[in-house]
Amino acid sequence: MVKISNVFDKIKKDEENKTPPSGQKNTFQSSVAQATKGKTLYFSHPQKEPHPLKGYFSNVLKLKAKEMEKTNQALPETETCYSMEKEDRICPVEELERLYEDILFIIKELLKEDTDYTSLETRTIMEKIGNIVDQLTIGNDDLLALALTKDSVDINYLLCHSVNTCIYSIDIGLGLGYNRSQLIELGASAFLHDIGMKQYLGLVNRNAVLTPEERNEIKEHTAIGRQILENINGLSESVINTVVYHHERIDGSGYPKGLQGESISEYAKIVGLVDMYTAMVHPRIYRHAYLATETAKEIMRNKNAFVYSLLRVLIERIGIFPPGSMVQLNTKETARVIKRNHKFSMSPLVQVISDADGKPLKENKVLNLADDLGIHIKGRLPIKT
User: Fold this and answer.
1) What predicted TM-score, i.e. pTM, was given to this entire model?
2) Considering the domain 40-323 in this protein, what is its CATH number?
3) Cα 206 from chain centroid?
């Protein structure tokens, strides 16, 4: 078995040869060329069609529509890719933002004190997660950028944390070769993983680090999560068990049962790992966000608690320069990572946003660092909000 410390070495070795073997098509470069041909990759302008809220049958989203009516807000008219059917079209960032807001609204409703879980329609949750699965499957990295840059620390930390953990967990599942059904089930597990925290929102959103006594108290959120989810029709036992056991660690250091190794489901192992990663790369009221590189190194220091193969997938797919990251190039330009390169993870596609003097660029400038051999990322910068 390759040593865990060699993961970063492998990534560096990938950079030694940025040219695919003779006769082998570079699918990443081809997809980038196709996506950027004659237009900006990061933004696009959809045609207009009725907003999907007009066709929703979920009680949760009906409530959202009613709230908009009360405030005299018109439903926006835009093209949509939302469907129960598998979607093969890459949605522009505007649609993804609406998808993110819709699923954010769902978790907001689920965390309310007076929510009636027995009447909840799980179909809507699975539909939204299916949309996320389809977009990630066809390589829409804009969703990952949203997962990195969105946070709700000023309202309720758990809202965006739940959605972001869902998105990242699905991407890990893709790296493990999961099929669509498995990805949706994993995504649902991640989306609901902290639902039991609704009993401890005061502690979660307090401007202070928890005391040891308070940390022990909130460990009950996994049991509360089971009680809640058992009242929701249509959820599999795999989803419920993941919510209960996502804080277990393979070395037995986790809770609630101190399970080890294969006694923990792979879903729970994934969600537990992503939960930690997502928490660190986003701010809390009492601290700033960690850089993704810092987070990856910290997780590697806890390598005995996590499965090596999952650590490797996380770091290679997400952990170093995830979409949405701000970076400084060796040219002293500032850029935003907009698409990953799975073959050369240290050489993503970036959009330059300011020149060497810090002046914003007037024209769109997109660089594929796998092609530009003289340009590379020099360092990671905090995300500008």
Assistant:
1) 0.79
2) 1.10.3210.10
3) 24
